[in-house]
Design goal:
159 residues, mainly beta, 5-stranded antiparallel beta sheet, 2 helices, 5 strands
Length: 159
């Protein structure tokens, strides 16, 4: 026998699930009757409506949602970090650009102003022009003076 909604199973009123289908102790939260207190449905949720604290990358999170602050993260020796240790110095950057019919390789010389994960910014002291260069195209960099370099493992700086 079919109901008015032409479905082959009996229809239930919204927010109602018969106890014969699934005992309330094992019913998932999405099918719990609305008459059940919210505290029983989600005991680990914060019910005050406050937002959890922001989490920075790499900070461990405990199962209850708290973070473990104060754990030092180790800085790794990436090109961007080495360049940041040498801001203000004159550098020569050797770049290559694939499939470029005008110029395949180009050399840029200038003062290091900034370095990010995917880019380097230099300025030409003679013209004042600034260049935003992608590290994707970087082959290598030379300096005419000693560079600052501190290994991430707490050893003495190298010059």
């Amino acid at each position: 026998m079919l109901n008015n909604n032409k479905m082959p199973w009996p229809s239930y009123q919204q927010n109602q699930m018969p106890s014969a289908v699934m005992p309330s102790s094992v019913m998932p939260n999405s099918v719990m009757p609305m008459s059940m207190p919210a505290a029983n449905m989600m005991p680990n949720m914060m019910m005050q409506g406050t937002m959890p604290p922001p989490v920075t990358n790499g900070v461990p999170i405990l199962p209850n949602g708290t973070t473990l602050p104060g754990i030092p993260t180790q800085e790794e020796s990436y090109v961007e970090n080495i360049l940041r240790m040498n801001l203000g110095k004159v550098a020569t950057l050797y770049m290559t650009y694939e499939n470029n019919s005008e110029w395949n390789a180009k050399i840029f010389k200038g003062v290091l102003e900034a370095a990010g994960r995917d880019h380097i910014i230099i300025s030409d002291p003679t013209t004042g022009k600034r260049y935003l260069l992608l590290t994707l195209n970087l082959d290598y960099i030379t300096f005419d003076e000693p560079i600052n370099y501190t290994l991430p493992f707490g050893s003495m700086p190298t010059r």
